[in-house]
Design goal:
Blueprint: H1 2-37, H2 84-91, E1 99-102, E2 109-111, H3 115-123, H4 132-144, H5 159-170, H6 175-184, E3 191-193, H7 198-207, E4 211-216, H8 222-228, E5 237-240, H9 241-244, H10 251-261, E6 268-272, H11 275-285, E7 288-291, H12 299-306
Parallel strand pairs: 1-4, 1-6, 4-5, 6-7
Antiparallel strand pairs: 2-3
Helix pairs in contact: 3-4, 4-5, 10-11
Organism: Adiantum capillus-veneris (Maidenhair fern)
Signal peptide: 1-18
InterPro entries: HAD-like_sf, HAD-SF_hydro_IA, HAD-SF_hydro_IA_REG-2-like, HAD-SF_hydro_IA_REG-2-like_cap, HAD_sf
Length: 313
């Protein structure tokens, strides 16, 4: 009788193991299908207003697929846990991550006014006659043109790149026009902090032991710009493409940020507004990633997902 009981218990144990394996395999297949669908999410173009603007107030646009099926932070049933961050906090002592990486233009900071308007208004005295909508259309075309793979777009001060963009977008090649625009987007007048509570939240995160860094495709103007916006001291480090020699989505820039902070990639989460550059790039480096405007809409939410509660007004 005891022998029969032991055989039955052994069979039950094998059945449980097989069931668990099948569940894990099914979950991986579902995640794989979602990941394969993702490349269609990105389309080249330009948005001259709102949160997807870059160093001259312009940036390539990204279309968004509202699906988190392959996202590590999507609800996953793991015993009593139904969120990936809760699961991580249970394993790592309360904090889901040791470091937060933050995109600059489009996430941390946004233009004070539509860049097409700025290009148009400043350009009038230089003979620019095209309308804002025409400038937008021409800029999108210019930005979509291949840039030499042997050079970064934002190499050093990035003037060659921006000269090309401004000339194609406005039809004006006057060096004084480029210089006025270039200087304007280095001032606090041109930008604002997207989330007014960002400074307090970053301070709370750092006091809790979470290191914070900027990871940005930007030229050498970013550091003086951050100083002008009085947010330079919010961060433990900055990984800027013009300094690192790699641009998102290249995983190297995320790894460089983690090295500056002294953490492993798997212990960091990146927040940015571009699915291709920020989300896919960070994940290729081994970091987790949240899409700004979809996965999270405020830095209070970011802190909460990491495991730090911050009271904001």
């Amino acid at each position: 009788m005891w022998v029969l009981l032991e055989v039955l218990l052994g069979c039950l144990d094998m059945l449980c193991t097989a069931t668990s394996f099948c569940r894990r395999r099914t979950h991986r297949r579902i995640s794989g299908l979602a990941t394969c669908a993702a490349p269609g999410a990105h389309s080249m173009g330009a948005i001259l207003s709102g949160r997807r603007s870059s160093t001259l107030g312009l940036r390539n646009g990204t279309s968004t697929i509202h699906s988190n099926a392959s996202h590590p932070s999507s609800p996953i049933q793991l015993g009593l846990f139904n969120e990936y961050e809760v699961y991580r906090r249970s394993l790592y002592g309360g904090l889901a991550y040791k470091a937060l990486l933050v995109d600059a233009a489009g996430t941390l900071i946004v233009p004070s006014e539509p860049a097409a308007k700025v290009y148009h208004d400043v350009g009038i005295k230089y003979g620019v006659q095209w309308s804002e909508s025409e400038i937008l259309k021409r800029y999108r075309w210019a930005y979509a043109q291949p840039w030499s793979r042997s050079r970064l777009r934002y190499e050093n001060d990035a003037r060659p790149f921006w000269q090309f963009i401004v000339e194609k977008a406005t039809g004006c090649s006057d060096p004084a026009y480029l210089e006025e625009l270039y200087h304007y987007y280095t001032t606090a007048e041109a930008w604002r902090i997207a989330d007014p509570d960002a400074g307090r939240i970053f301070e709370a995160l750092r006091l809790s032991g979470v290191k914070v860094a900027v990871v940005s495709n930007f030229d050498t103007r970013l550091r003086p710009l951050m100083s002008a916006l009085h947010c330079y001291d919010w961060f433990d480090a900055m990984a800027i493409s013009a300094e690192v020699g790699a641009e998102k989505p290249n995983p190297a820039i995320f790894s460089a940020a983690c090295e500056l902070l002294g953490v492993q990639e798997q212990d960091a989460v990146h927040v940015g507004d571009d699915r291709r550059n920020d989300i896919w790039g960070a994940r290729d480096a081994g970091c987790d990633a949240w899409l700004w405007g979809e996965d999270v809409t405020s830095f209070e939410q970011v802190a909460k997902k990491i495991g730090v509660e911050v009271a904001v007004s």
